[in-house]
Design a protein that fits this description.
single chain, Cytochrome Bc1 Complex, Chain D, domain 2, binds heme C
Amino acid sequence: MKKTNIILISVAALLTFSGCTQTPNAGEKVTYSKSPKEVYDSSCVKCHGADGAGITEKKAPALNDRQAAELELDLYDVKNGGTNQSSGTEHDVMEHNMKKLLDKGYNYDPKAMAEFIEKSFYKKPE
Ligand code: HEC
């Protein structure tokens, strides 16, 4: 094989492989294999409870006193790695949990999850 051919092949290979490591564009559509309910029932329920009231031993706060807009902000923070300016909470536990969720394929859309939680659990303060 000619030297120039080998160089051309190497360059082509480099270009192909570097293409694979690119991170997806921010605007790219993600598809979620599980519905928010499926994710909640198989994971979130363990700490936040079947009625979203929270489980004290797990230190998990109630989610039934929040409306979707607020939950959505929290969930974006949780998914994006923890500390945040918007709610001032640290999400160490949740952040850790998120890694496990992703490993299991339980990714979710924060907006859809927030709406699901509000619709299923929200109780108006008395
Ligand atoms: C291992 C137990 C555990 C699991 C599982 C879990 N959470 Fe949490 N969650 C916590 C704890 C503890 C906190 C409070 C501390 C923190 O944010 O890390 C929290 C906080 C939150 C908050 C923020 C509430 C606030 O007061 O700011 C939201 C929203 C939330 N969880 C939703 C979810 C959803 C949705 C899932 C499932 C995808 C989930 N959690 C799974 C333990 C858990």
